[in-house]
Please model this.
Amino acid sequence: VDERERLARRRAALEARARIVRAARAWFEAEGFLEVETPARVRAPGQEIHLDAVPAGPGGDGSARWLVTSPEYHMKRLLGAGFERIVQIGKAWRAGEVGPHHQPEFLIAEWYRAGAPLSTIADDCETLVQIAARVGGGAPPTLDLQGRFDRTTVRELVRLHAGFELEGDETVQALAAKATAAGVDVSGRAAWDDVFFQVWLDRVEPQLGQGRPTFVFDWPAPLGALARRRTDDPRLVERFELYANGLELANAFGELTDADEQRARFEAESVTRARLGKAVYDIDEQLLAALPHLTPTSGVALGVDRLVMLVLGLRDIREVVAFTDDEV
Amino acid sequence: MYDTSDIRKGLKIMLDGAPYTVIEFQFVKPGKGAAFTRTKMKNLLSGGVIERNLRSGDKLEPANVETKTMQYLYKEAESFVFMDTTSYDQVSIPDATIGDSKDFMPENINVEVLFFNDRAVGVTLPNFIEQAITETEPGFKGDTSTGASKPAKIGTGAQINVPLFINVGDVVKIDTRTGEYLERLSRA
Model:
C-alpha cells in the first residue's frame, strides 16, 4: 500500500490519539502529579524473565546500556527520594514483541501514588479510560463504560472458568495435576508460570472483560514480580491487571519495598534468565537502596496504544501508530 | 521440526496423529508470562477446527501433506479415478474419501487432491461449477420472482433447489461449498 494513502487512512486515529494523550496529561496535572522523564537508555532495563530489552550501545563508562522495558526502576528511585505523585508518558521497548496487540516500541503511561492503596490506582485507570473514550469520540458500541468496572480475582476466575482451586503456593507438580484434571493440556510446561498461563489462555482469558473492562486482582505470589505480598494471605500479591475487549490494558502493583525480598527475586530471575540463555542484566543497586525509603506505594503501567485501540474499537495496534516497526 | 516462530497461515503440522493446517494465529503475551501463539488449526482429515495456545519455543512436527491438481476421469465400482494433470499418473480414491464431494464433481473437472503420507485423503472442488439441469418440473414462464424454488437434478445426479423459472437443459452456476444455485448461465 502506498505510504501516503496508509497514513491518510490512519489520520483520524492519530488525531484521536493526540487528544487522548493531551487529556491524560491534563488530568494527571489536575490530580497533582508531577510529570517526570527518566532515561530511556539504562543499565538495568527490567529483570522480568519474559521481557527482553533492546541493546542500546555502551554508556559513557563503557557499561552495557539497554532501552527501558518500562521506566519503573528510575521512577521508584524518585519515590525513594520523597516524590509522591509522579507520572511518565513515554516510550518503552520490548524486543521481539510483534502482533495485533504488540509493537516493539510503544507508549507507556506509568504513574505512582505514595501512600495510596491499589484500589486508588484502579480508580485512576477507570477515570482515564472514560476520559479517553470521551475525547476519542465516544466509546464504540462494543464497549460498556457505564458505572464502575467489574472487579474480580485470579482465584475466582480460575474457579469459574477452569474449575479448580488455585492456592498460589502449590508446587508446579500440584498445579499441573489440577490443570490436567480440569482438562487443560499442560504437557511440556515445566515452569509454574507456564502451567498457569496455559490455563489462563485456554480457559480464562477468552472470557475476560468482553464488552466491559474488568480488573483482575490478587495474583499468585509466583507471578509477583515487583508486587508486595498480601499481609492477610501471603500466597497472593497486591497486583491487578485491567482487561477490556481482549486487550490487556494495564498492570499495577502494590509496590514491594522490602529490599531483601526484592534482591532475592532479582537474583532468582537472573538465574532463570541465565538458564534460558537470555541476557542477564545488572541488578539495579540504586533501586534496592531506594526501596526502604518508599512509603506504601501503588503504581501502574498502562499501554497507551492499546487504550487508543480500545476506545476507537480498533483491532490492530498498527492502526493507532504512524509508523510501525516494519515501516521505519 | 518447526517451532512457533515458523507459524504462518497454511503451515501444515501434525497434532495428536492427524495433519492440521494453520488458519489463524496471533502473538500473545499474557500477564507478564512467556510469549504464546494463539493458533487456530483445521484438521485436514475431518475438517474440524481446534484452538491451541502454543508457548514460544514449542516444537511442531511438519505434516507430510501435499496437494496436486488432478482431473476426475471416471467412476469405478467403489472408487473414483483421477489423473495428475502434470505427470499423467492415475490414482483411485475410494468412495468414502470423496464423500459428498461427488455431488458436485462432474467428469473431467480439475480438483485439488490432498495427499497425506502419499495417500489421497481428500479432494477440494473449485468453488463454483456449471451444470445443465437434467430433470425438473416444467418452468413457469415469466416467473422470475425470488423466493419460491423447486427441486432439480443436475448432470452429476445430485439434487439442488432452483427457482421456478428454470427448465431442463438450462445451464446453471452452483456454489460447491453450499450446494446452492447461484444463477442461470444459459437457457435450454
Remarks:
- Residues 22 and 41 of chain B are 4 Å apart (CA to CA).
- The first helix of chain B runs from residue 95 to 98.
